[in-house]
Design a protein that fits this description.
heterodimer; A: 367 residues; alpha+beta; Rossmann fold; OB fold (Dihydrolipoamide Acetyltransferase, E2P); six-stranded mixed beta sheet; five-stranded antiparallel beta sheet; 8 helices; B: 223 residues; mainly alpha; MetI-like fold; 74% helix
Chain lengths: 367, 223
């Protein structure tokens, strides 16, 4: 099942890269903070960076081997047949979109590039130079160029990070379609968790040159294998909820009997979604003061379990009526007059913007 | 005026120009894209002929080509006071301009573009021909024209290593000097005008190259 097997070590300027990873016919997201070695891993697979030791296998073919039985192998980048979409697209500025896409094609390059552009609905961009394209269009052309020689493996480095939300979502959908259609193995590097949820089948969390955990995205999010992964994922207050209704004003969720409103998303009622609450978007209410409009929604009463005061930021752990716990954080300048000792009852309001529904992590409710 | 010095200049600048292009490109690529010990030293040495007095360059060339040098003793090359020595002198003084300009232009090409070309199946030669060269084209052309113009105008070092032999090594700059010494001012004026117009045309060509024909498609880091 595994089509790509990476098992490499390489000493780099700032870190020791040591990556063990397998990927099948899927989109595997390499997720982690910048400097974790994600791009170096892609470069090693592409043949642009030679590891100090280890092995890289694509299907039956050894792309790289050093320091292992079987003899040293280093297939040059040009012979690996791997599609690579670089972070800033790296389109050739002296070539039109058509010639960029046809670059790798030996026979009838223009004709075949034209066919591919038509198939992807990009024919109208053929004669434009990269500087005359929008970010999203450049990204589409870069993707088409990487796919033109029909690679089995596609590498994407922060592909959609510079694009606005609408363009990003449409490209993510396109990528999922292309992956399924062409039965590609895709390594997708990102530092944005939302991207990982939107496109990934599985997630590999990287930190300081190593792969800390690999698994389905929900699995890694819910059961981080160690505190590093939990911190890298940056997730507090992760939960699953059922969609009650979706209107143009709000998405209503049912979290174990607690009704929450989130910003509107077109998700059908009954769907189970994964979501989280940003701790800093939970407000503590003064019982004796009138409510501002910002905190009228998503009100809930809870009991303080823990309080951890720090220099600038206070954290509360609050138990909710639905038997779940909620982490709340706020500036230490706030709420000085409120009793927030463990055991106290507090009135909370969760701002709808603080309820983040992770898209792609949804599935229909089982009956 | 006699056309002989002009034809001789052409015969000496032509080969020098080709050498400047070939050697200059190789050195520019090396300096722009490879890391090696002593790179700064090589870079500095290559620029030195620009600032040294022509007599100093000429002196070094005398030692490098004359009696006691490897070229003379081991390879048996007798270059001094031949047109070949004039070609060497012209190449040495023209090379720094070519290398500087081409190196800057090549360094200005995003290495990621070359990497992209590699992942798209290009070998090193194809990467250079299809990506680096077209993107650095203007800087390379400008350096080449400038280096060739400098080679055409070479006087001091040529005087020292090739002499001033009419019909053999007496190029235009030397013939002008000779004409003035012998008070043949009409001939000097004609040759001066010829050299000036050729040089003017070359520089004009460079300025044209540096100005984009239309905004957009072509951009590189020429000087």
């Amino acid at each position: 099942m595994s089509r790509l097997r990476i098992d490499i070590a390489r000493r780099l300027h700032a870190l020791e890269l040591q990556v063990h990873l397998e990927a099948g016919e899927e989109i595997l997201v390499l997720f982690g903070p910048s400097g974790a070695g994600k791009t170096s891993t892609l470069n090693a697979v592409a043949g642009l960076l030679a590891p100090d030791s280890g092995e890289i296998l694509l299907g039956e073919e050894v792309l790289f081997r050093r320091g292992l039985p079987g003899g040293a192998v280093h297939v040059p980048a040009r012979r690996r047949g791997i599609g690579y979409v670089f972070q800033h697209y790296a389109l050739f500025p002296h070539l039109t979109a058509l010639d960029n896409v046809g670059y790798a094609l030996r026979r009838r390059p223009r004709e075949r590039a034209g066919e591919l552009l038509r198939a992807l609905g990009l024919a109208h961009l053929a004669d434009r130079y990269p500087q005359e394209l929008s970010g999203g269009q450049q990204q589409r052309i870069a993707l088409a160029r990487a796919l033109a020689p029909e690679p089995r493996l596609l590498l994407l480095d922060e592909p959609f990070s510079a694009l606005d939300t609408a363009v990003r979502e449409s490209l993510q959908k396109e990528l999922r379609r292309l992956q399924a259609e062409r039965r590609l193995t895709v390594l997708y590097v990102t530092h944005r968790l939302e991207d990982a949820f939107a496109v990934g089948h599985r997630l590999a969390v990287m930190r300081e040159g190593r792969v800390e955990q690999v698994g389905s995205i929900e699995e890694v999010a819910r059961l981080p294998s160690n505190r590093h992964v939990a911190r890298i994922m940056g997730l507090r207050n992760l939960f699953q909820a059922r969609v009650l209704s979706a209107s143009s004003e709000a998405l209503s969720l049912d979290w174990n009997g607690l009704r929450l409103e989130a910003p509107p998303l077109p998700i059908p009622a009954g769907t189970i979604v994964t979501a989280y609450i940003r701790p800093e978007e939970v407000k503590v209410l003064y019982p004796d003061r009138p409510l501002s409009s910002a905190v009228r929604r998503n009100r809930v009463e809870g009991r303080v379990l823990e309080r951890s005061p720090q220099a600038h930021l206070h954290r509360l752990l609050v138990s909710l009526p639905n038997a779940n716990e909620l982490e709340v954080s706020f500036s230490s300048r706030l709420y000085r007059s409120l009793p927030l000792e463990p055991g106290s009852l507090v009135q909370l309001a969760v701002r709808p913007e603080g309820v983040v529904v992770l898209r792609g992590g949804q599935r229909a409710e089982r009956t | 005026m006699s056309w002989q010095p002009a034809l001789l200049s052409l015969g000496i600048t032509g080969p020098a120009s080709l050498l400047i292009l070939g050697i200059g490109l190789a050195l520019a690529l090396l300096l722009a894209r490879r890391r090696f010990p002593g790179k700064l030293l090589v870079d500095t040495l290559l620029t030195l002929p620009l600032v040294l007095p022509p007599s100093v360059v000429g002196y070094y060339l005398l030692r490098a080509l004359g009696r006691g040098s490897p070229l003379f003793e081991w390879l048996g090359l007798r270059l001094l006071f031949t047109p070949a020595a004039a070609v060497v002198a012209a190449t040495i003084v023209g090379l720094p301009l070519m290398v500087q300009s081409a190196q800057a232009a090549i360094a200005g090409v995003d290495p990621q573009l070359e990497n992209a070309a590699r992942t798209l199946g290009s070998g090193e030669l194809a990467v250079f021909r299809r990506v680096t060269l077209p993107l650095a084209r203007r800087g390379i052309l400008a350096g080449w024209v400038l280096g060739t113009a400098r080679a055409l105008g070479e006087f001091g070092a040529t005087f020292m290593v090739a002499g001033n032999i009419p019909g053999r090594t007496q190029t235009l700059p030397l013939a002008i000097y000779d004409a003035v010494q012998n008070r043949r001012y009409d001939a000097a004026t004609q040759m001066v005008l010829l050299v000036t117009s050729v040089s003017f045309l070359a520089l004009y060509l460079i300025r044209r190259l540096e100005r984009p024909r239309r905004p957009g498609p072509l951009q590189d880091a020429g000087p």
